[in-house]
Design goal:
Layout: H1 8-11, H2 22-36, H3 46-67, H4 69-79, H5 94-113, H6 116-142, H7 147-167
Helix pairs in contact: 2-3, 3-4, 4-7, 5-6, 5-7, 6-7
Length: 169
């Protein structure tokens, strides 16, 4: 375990991978807490307390990121040297964009008519697509697909996530 490591998996003493054993992840957090929790440094110097707080903050960040499949995928891309880009994805598949536009129009119509049942159905549809895209990302990562292609896959997931947030403000 190395709280100062830039690699989130290494902060927790784990091997970098797409699949994360949540029990091992939680165990690593507990063990890190036993070592670095600021309460253990209550009688230490200011510098030691600050070091412990920084270490625990970095460990908590790693734990939160690795628990979330989307954030974990972003971290993998960063480690591969192909971080997600902010803004519009200029390489997006036109068929995907057309499908999303149609679903968004449906959602807009459902919201305009106050059809909460339809909005829930569309939210479930977006959630299912997000799950599918994340699984496809994981499979592609394991197949050692090119980082740029992985990033394109994750951009679709990001689009789905943003759309779901718009449906459920």
């Amino acid at each position: 375990m190395n709280p100062s490591a830039t690699n989130l998996w290494h902060r927790l003493g784990l091997e970098q991978s797409w699949a994360v054993d949540t029990v091992a992840l939680d165990t690593a957090l507990r063990e890190a807490g036993l070592r670095w929790h600021p309460d253990r440094f209550a009688l230490a110097t200011d510098a030691e307390r600050a070091t412990a707080e920084d270490a625990m903050s970095a460990i908590n960040e790693a734990w939160r990121t690795l628990r979330d499949p989307f954030l974990r995928a972003q971290a993998l891309l960063k480690e591969l040297g192909a971080p997600m880009q902010d803004g519009t994805d200029k390489n997006a598949d036109p068929m995907f964009l057309m499908e999303m536009m149609e679903l968004k129009e449906e959602a807009f119509d459902a919201e305009a008519s106050g059809d909460s049942s339809r909005i829930r159905q569309l939210d479930a549809k977006f959630a299912a697509r997000e799950f599918e895209e994340l699984n496809a990302f994981g499979d592609a990562y394991l197949a050692k697909e090119a980082p740029a292609d992985l990033r394109d896959r994750l951009q679709r997931t990001a689009y789905l996530r943003r759309t779901r947030k718009q449906l459920n403000p």
